[in-house]
Amino acid sequence: MALFDKFNKLAQERTALIQAEPSPFGTRIDEIYTPTEGRIGQWRVVLAGTNNYLGLTFDAECIKAAQQALEHEGTGTTGSRMANGSYGSHMALEEELGDFFQRRSVIVFSTGYLANLGIIGTLAGPDDIVLLDADCHASIYDACRMGGAQVIRFRHNDAADLEKRMLRLGEKARDAIIIVEGIYSMMGDQAPLNEIVEIKRRLGGYLLVDEAHSVGVLGANGRGLAEELGVEDEVDVILGTFSKSLGAIGGFAASQHAEFDLLRYASRPYIFTASPSPSVIASVRTALRSLRTRPELRTQLWDNARQLHKGLSALGYRVSSRPSPVIPVMLGSPKEGVAFWEALIEQGVYVNLVLPPASPNGDALVRCSVSAAHTPKQIDQIIAAFATLRDVFSTAAQVS
Ligand code: PMP
């Protein structure tokens, strides 16, 4: 078999679904005008398929900070922090994140994916057991594979199933690592962290929470789900990213454990990749300040999320039960999903298409993500586009 033959099936599946541009996979966005508007081919669209929760990608202060860093520190670090050294701004960001999350140690990584690989893949070795929510992000699965830990999946958001599996472990449960997410990226639902913390108190274990989609979104100060539920003290490691509410790229891990910084010397995804560019660090530091000092962004985000959720529910679409900045709309077969996604672009709305197995129950879904930067009028535009498609796709969407 030739080297690339193994991809034939994948290629056939893709061409069977998509014959022309725009394609829902790796969509070409020709121009970006604002955090919420762009152009795809001939269509000017409202962007509702990003993770730009606080809308900070065009924030004037963030852009100015990044420009200044470009001028003063150059375009890139050209090396890893372990081999080539850290810039003062890397350390400053780690201190500022430590202050924000009230944790002794913070390690910054070049992406959120690498933060998960670098922390989970190093902490969870071949002698360790990881209890993983089945819907955890691919980076968490990859990290477990990299570290060689024994992985036990429990049913998504099912604390009773977690407990059952921990009880089966007996004494070993004391040292097991439990990993969940604050907000899950496909369905927008939240981990039952109170119940999980209660199980941890009884049976032991370490708790890692990936707050990639919940930092800046949940909690009185925007620290995520653990803050919202008042259980931060029970979280051993917070994982997160700069690529969503902080509007740039990079990732981090924060912990109160005294030995946490030792991971820098053992974590290959920290040691063997270049550190984030100074301009990225500068914009993230500024975005973090905005996250802290402008709670009105979070209020606006939730107002927008509620408006969209209410509008789509009223149209009879099958949406998530609770409003969230991530709102999935369940559709029919993958083919119908693709057609719906294309028709939405023609109506001036860009969302993300998710196909099985990434979507549950064999249904395609479109994932709408809301930003604080959406105006109420733009949210109405999104709802109006769904209203127009309602009758055309009534069977696929099973609208009432
Ligand atoms: N964790 C979760 C839960 C995510 O959803 C993502 C990205 N979608 C990541 C980690 C990876 O983050 P990044 O894109 O910054 O690498």
Automatic annotation (TrEMBL):
**Aminotransferase class I/classII large domain location:** 49-385
Is Acyltransferase there in the keyword field? yes
Tell me the InterPro entries matching this sequence: Aminotrans_II_pyridoxalP_BS (IPR001917), Aminotransferase_I/II_large (IPR004839), AON_synthase_class-II (IPR050087), PyrdxlP-dep_Trfase (IPR015424), PyrdxlP-dep_Trfase_major (IPR015421), PyrdxlP-dep_Trfase_small (IPR015422)
Matching Pfam families = Aminotran_1_2
Keyword set, alphabetical order: Acyltransferase, Aminotransferase, Pyridoxal phosphate, Transferase
PROSITE patterns, per database record: AA_TRANSFER_CLASS_2 (PS00599)
Cofactor(s) this protein cannot do without: pyridoxal 5'-phosphate
**Acyltransferase among keywords:** yes
The domain of life for this entry's organism is: Bacteria
> Under the GO molecular function aspect, what terms does this record hold?
8-amino-7-oxononanoate synthase activity; pyridoxal phosphate binding; transaminase activity
Q: What EC number(s) does this enzyme carry?
A: 2.3.1.47
- NCBIfam families tied to this protein: SerpalmtaseBetaP (NF047599)
Cross-referenced PANTHER family, in alphabetical order?
CLASS II AMINOTRANSFERASE/8-AMINO-7-OXONONANOATE SYNTHASE, LD36009P
The similarity comment for this entry is:
Belongs to the class-II pyridoxal-phosphate-dependent aminotransferase family.
What name has this protein been given in UniProt?
Answer: 8-amino-7-oxononanoate synthase
Q: Which organism is it from?
A: Pseudomonas luteola
Mind giving the lineage of the organism this protein is from? Bacteria, Pseudomonadati, Pseudomonadota, Gammaproteobacteria, Pseudomonadales
